[in-house]
Structure formats: structure tokens, C-alpha cells
Amino acid sequence: MKCKLLFFGMIFSVIFAQNYSVEFDASDATSGNVNDYIKLDNLINDQEFIEHNLDYEMTFECFIKPHTYHQSFTNSSFILGGIIERLVIDDNGYLACNIKNQEGDLINLVSNDQLELNQWNHIALTYAGVSISLYINGVYQGSKGSSTSYADMQYLFIDGNDGISIGIACMENGWWYPYDGLIDEIRISNIKRYWDDFEVTNFKFKPDSNTVILYHLDTIINNKIINDSYYGAKYDADIFSITLNEDSPFQTPIGNGTPEDPYQISDLNELHWIASDTANWSYHYVQTADINAAETKTWNSGLGWPPIGNEYAHFTGDYNGNNFTIDSLFISRDTIDNIGFFGIIEGTVRNLNLSDVDIIGRSHTGGITGVNLGAISYCNSSGLINGFNLVGGLAGFNSAIAKIEYCSSTCTITGVSDNIGGLVGVNSNSSIVSSYATGSVSGNNQVGGLVGWNYKYSSIE
User: Fold this and answer.
1) CB of 186 within 8 A of CB of 198?
2) Is the pTM above the cut of 0.90?
3) For residue 161, what are the contacts with CB-CB under 8 A and spacing of at least 6?
4) I need a labelling partner for 457 at 20 to 30 A (CA). Which of 96, 210, 225, 382 fits?
């Protein structure tokens, strides 16, 4: 069996930089003199890495776009205390891996599904002491916890004394089995991140406390790719004849986020891109098409859409809906405050239609936003909104000299406690101009068809 080798690693990159991948062209595939690969120095004797990397638990994941099934992808000769011996692609397009268990025995597993040629595939391998699991594009491929002979893979064995090579296998007589295709977003974590099927998003990973190695593969600096984890430059990797390719599974919206050239939002992925990083919450956006958000009902284990803006980072930018609609947005976060399409607005939102929303929050819950500290104009909402208190069809709380003008809501509003309004739950030191609500409203105290409580220094015109 001819196999492609696959390296295990991690991923992350600056979200507003150009998105790139790295390209391997399988040059000199038959000579043993392959010249394009990535090399990470030997870590076997690095005690700090061993202590922080694995307690017999790990996740490797990355994105790959293979062009053929006839060269090796990467060789992971990394054998620290039970991590990957190798992860490969065979000549029929199946993933296969070897990993050492706690007793030092090799465990082997082959995927049920094939990788798609010339398409981006997310692959993940998890390890938890006695078993390994494979995933392709978020689909569980099976687990295995016993050692097998797997003779067809033995010729790919690397003893681990020469570190990790990406894109080729390091053999005693030279470099072999070169990968032909693209790689992006390599991440290694010291936990088992996946236990069942999961949704693969088109957003780059962010480093967290469980991130050990994270390669975004968007930049090459001094012939190195940069590790964006706790360990920093210590685990930067050397590159050899690698080139960047603009083909990437991670797409940034058109534009640059300025008032003159706002980011153009045309689909749900681009909309989610805004929500995915607080760094995105200060830019200018224009929606360019109607967006169906029905699939948000399956997101985040049933929690749905993640609001843009929170108590630590408000949305301070400008969102121009351009009179387009976002339909069937779903949120179910009944233990969390500041819930809506936006969580907390301190900037401006205008010309936006939300239709058929299904939103559940705790306090400060609304259709457009949980809390408005900025300006909302020419927006409307329809659907169902439920919360505990400070609940409104457009905004749960309009405060701090905020303004809502030329807006409407036909939402059915249900509140458990107080300050429940058809348009706004509480209007405090702020103004509502030329706006209305026609939906049914129910709650305990301070319930109103337009506003639950119009507090001091506030006006409704």
C-alpha cells in the first residue's frame, strides 16, 4: 500500500490578514530529493513540552486539499508519551494513523470515508490514553483501542529521532512520499476536543489554554512558520521551498472595514465571521443579500447564534443591513444576559430586517440587540422572543443617551418577570422616535405594548 504521510499540528492566525495556505507540489517524487517541506525540530527530550502537551490526551486537526492520492501528505514521527506515530493518507484516499498507547503498543485505525480530491477537508484525530478516533469534515470515522499489526504501514515508520516533517516522510535513504496539495490551519491540543460529530466552521482557530502548537500558515517570517500558542517562537517551524497559496478554506468578506470600503456580508458564514472574533466588532459592514439563518438552530450544541457584542467588548462599529433580511435566527441561552442578534451595541445598526426570529435569553433580551447604547434606525423584527426581565421586540434595554428611530416590531414577547415591552423593555435616559410595535406582550410588572418602563430622562416621540 502506498501512503501519504500526514503531520499533526495546530492552527491560528490574524483574522484580518490575507488568508493563505501552504502548497506542496510533490517535486522530485521519485528521486528522494524532495525540496518542499516543513520541519519541526525534535521535541522528544523537551520535558516542558511533554509535561504541558499530553497527559495521554490529545487532539490533532488541520485542513487539507489533496490534489492526488499518490504521494505522502506529512510524516508525524512525533512519539512523545503516546502521541501520533504517524497520520497518513493511503493511495485510495483513506486516512490511517498509528499512535502509541500508554503501554507503548501501536494502535492503528483507518477511516470509513475517503478524502475529497481538490476540495478542502477538515481532518481530526483524538487520543485519550487507550483509544484513538478519527473525524473527516466533522463526521466520526470510528475508534480503536487495541493494537494491530497493520503491516502495510510499517514501511512508513520513522524512529522519531529526527523530529517532525510536514509534507514528506523522512526515510533513512532520503525524503520520500511527498504530498501533492495544500495544507492550512494546523492545531495540536492537549485535550480530547471532539467526542461525536461536530460542525466544522470556516473560521480560524484561536489559541486557548489547551493549545500547544498553532500554525496559521498565513505568513512566512525568516523562513519559519509562526506558532501562535503559549510556547510562542520556541516551536516555530522551519520551511524549505514552501510557497503560500491564496486558496484557503477561510474566507474574509470583501472590503476592508472602513466607512469608504465596508466589509460586504452576503451569507451566513460571513455573518458568523463578524461574531467569531471581538476584533471584528469595531468595523463597518454592509449586507448585500438576504440571509437564511435557519441552520443556527443546530449551532453550539443547541445554543444557536452567538450574539455580536458582550459586557466585555461592545459592538462599536456600523452595520448597514441595506434593507436586506436575516431570516430564522435562533438563540437559546436562557441563563445568559445581553441576548439578541447583537448582544450590546455601542455603535450603529441600520436598515436591517430580522424575520421569524426565535430568541430565548435571560435579562436584557431583544431581537436586534439585548442592550442598545448607540443608535438603531430603520430596523424591524418579527418572530418570538422570550426572556426573564428587560425583554423587548427590538431591544431589551435602551440606555445611556441611546436612540431608536423609525423602527418596528411584530414579535410575540414573553417575559417571566418585569420590564417587558413590545419594542423595548426599559428606555432609560434615551429616546425612541417614530417607532411602533404590534405584537402581543406578556409579563409580570411594568409591561407595555411599546415600552415596559420609560425611565427618567427618556423620551418617546
Assistant:
1) no
2) no
3) 42, 44
4) 382
CB 326 within 8 A of CB 293: yes
Residue (of 127, 189, 125, 159) closest to 44 by Cα position: 159
Closest CA relative to residue 75, chosen from 202, 174, 166, 150: 166
Distance CA 197, CA 207 (A): 22
pLDDT at residue 6, as a whole number: 42
Residues written for the chain: 461
Q: Angle at CA 208, nearest 5°, toward 40 and 243?
A: 35
| pLDDT at res. 42 | 47
Domains (range + CATH), the chain: 3-245 (2.60.120.200), 263-460 (2.160.20.110)
For residue 261, what is the enclosing H or E element?
none
Collect the ranges in the chain with pLDDT lower than 70: 1-18, 26-35, 41-56, 70-85, 100-105, 129-130, 143-164, 168-177, 202
> Would you report the helix, strand and coil content of the chain in percent, each value rounded to 5?
10, 45, 50
DSSP secondary-structure letter at 162? T
- The rounded distance, in Å, linking the Cα atoms of 380 and 214 is 42
| Torsion 155-122-40-221 (CA) sign | positive
Helices (H), 14-166: 47-53
Contact between 340 and 395 (Cβ < 8 Å) = yes
Q: Distance (Å, rounded) from C-alpha 31 to C-alpha 174?
A: 9
363, β-bridge pairs: 389
What pLDDT, on the 0 to 100 scale, is given for residue 100?
A: 65
Please say whether the beta carbons of 446 and 417 come within 8 A.
no
Distance linking the first and last C-alpha atoms of the chain: 77
Dihedral angle of Cα 270, 271, 274, 275, to the nearest 10 degrees:
-130
Closest by CA position to 242, among listed 78, 23, 421: 23
Residue whose grid cell is 417587558: 420
CA distances from 405 to 352, 408, 433 (A): 13, 9, 4
**Cell (9 digits) for 354:** 430580522
What secondary structure letter does DSSP report for 151?
G
